[in-house]
Amino acid sequence: MKRHLLSLVMVFSGFLLNAQNIYNGQTLQQNRKYWGTDNGYYLMFQNDGNLVLYTRDGSPVWDTKTTDRGVKAVFQEDGNLVVYTPANGVAFTSNTYGKGADRLTVQDDGNLVIYNGSNPLWASKSGGKPINNNSRNDYGFRRDYVNKGYKLRGGEKLYSSNGNYYLIFQNDGNLVLSNRNGNAIWGAGTERRGDRAEFQNDGNLVIYDRYNKSIWSSNTFGKGAEKLMVQNDGNLVIYGRNLNPVWSTGTQR
Q1: Which residues of 192-212 are buried (b: 16+ CB within 10 A; e: fewer)?
Q2: Which of 57, 92, 137, 189, by CA, is between 20 and 30 Å from 51?
Q3: What is the pTM of this model?
Q4: Transmembrane segments in this chain: where (predicted)?
Q5: What is the spatial distance between Cα 54 and Cα 60, in angstroms, rounded to a whole number?
Q6: Average pLDDT over the chain, rounded to an integer
Q7: pLDDT at residue 8 is higher than 60
Q8: Is CATH 3.40.50.720 the classification given to domain 19-130?
């Protein structure tokens, strides 16, 4: 009996470990759901040959458009995500081979991302195209700054370009700046109250509660703020035009 229970625990533990990340050399099982950690999204290679990212309620948000063509989906040893046809042709590819990709991740924000360490190489939200990490875009994949109008998703990290610091809107509702070891160096103090964080179009960084009431802000509206940056020196700064700082955490190291 104990041996049977231990076997069950090991089986379920294996599913949990594979729930978010798919690693090099792994072939995706048909009709299996590869869930994100909060069970809000899942990836499935369907028996019709299409690889699809779904919301929890079964609404598709991205797919490889390989219906009736794909027979196998593989995150290969070379870091390339490929859907093959019956004749071993390529129906879809992420074009990430030879770039050091080490995992395919179903994220809690509804994004499917291929990473090299902490460096994103490809994402479904970038239109399913390889990411040019020398450019910056609306999803913050250069990840040292975001432009006004950006909403910080729960659990998402905005890194300094050297990777030593990151900003995160935590699942407990607090906006926190930490070093790479996870030690907080600044926080907004909104734990157990914050519902969402936005760097608004008016240039104000604001945390709202679930009743849509502002509970913290940088008070930078109307000051020409353009971007929010996590700097290599550990300082979180809001810059205006011509790189004029209008607010900071004052945490430079």
Answers
A1: ebbbbbbbbeebbbbbbbeee
A2: 137
A3: 0.49
A4: none
A5: 4
A6: 84
A7: no
A8: no
Q: What is the DSSP letter of 124?
A: G
Q: Is the pLDDT of residue 161 over 50?
A: yes
The strand pair at 103-106 and 90-93 is best described as unpaired
- The edge-to-edge listing of strands for the beta sheet with 112-116 is 21-23, 103-106, 112-116, 119-123, 129-130
Q: DSSP assignment, residue 125?
A: G
Copy the structure tokens of residue 183.
């030690």
> By CB neighbour count within 10 A (0-12 exposed, 13-18 middle, 19+ buried), where does 251 fall?
middle
| CB-based contacts of 151, cutoff 8 Å, min separation 6 | 196, 197, 198, 199
Rounded distance, CA 191 to CA 176, Å?
10
CATH topology of domain 145-248: Agglutinin, subunit A (2.90.10)
93 pLDDT tier (thresholds 50, 70, 90): very high
DSSP 134-202: TS--TT-SS-SEEETTEEEPBT-EEE-TTSSEEEEE-TTS-EEEEETTS-EEEE-S-TTT--EEEE-TT
The span from the CA of 197 to the CA of 151, in Å, is 6
Q: Distance (Å, rounded) from C-alpha 112 to C-alpha 75?
A: 13
Q: State what percent of residues in the chain have pLDDT above 90.
A: 58
What is the separation of C-alpha 70 from the centre of its chain, rounded to a whole number of angstroms? Answer: 27
Q: With bands split at pLDDT 50, 70 and 90, how would you rate the model's confidence at 146? A: confident
Q: What's residue 126's pLDDT?
A: 61
Task: Give domain limits for the chain.
Answer: 19-130, 145-248
CA proximity to 191, closest of 175, 173, 205? 173
Tell me how far CA of residue 183 lies from CA of 5, 6, 15, 196, in angstroms. Answer: 38, 36, 30, 22
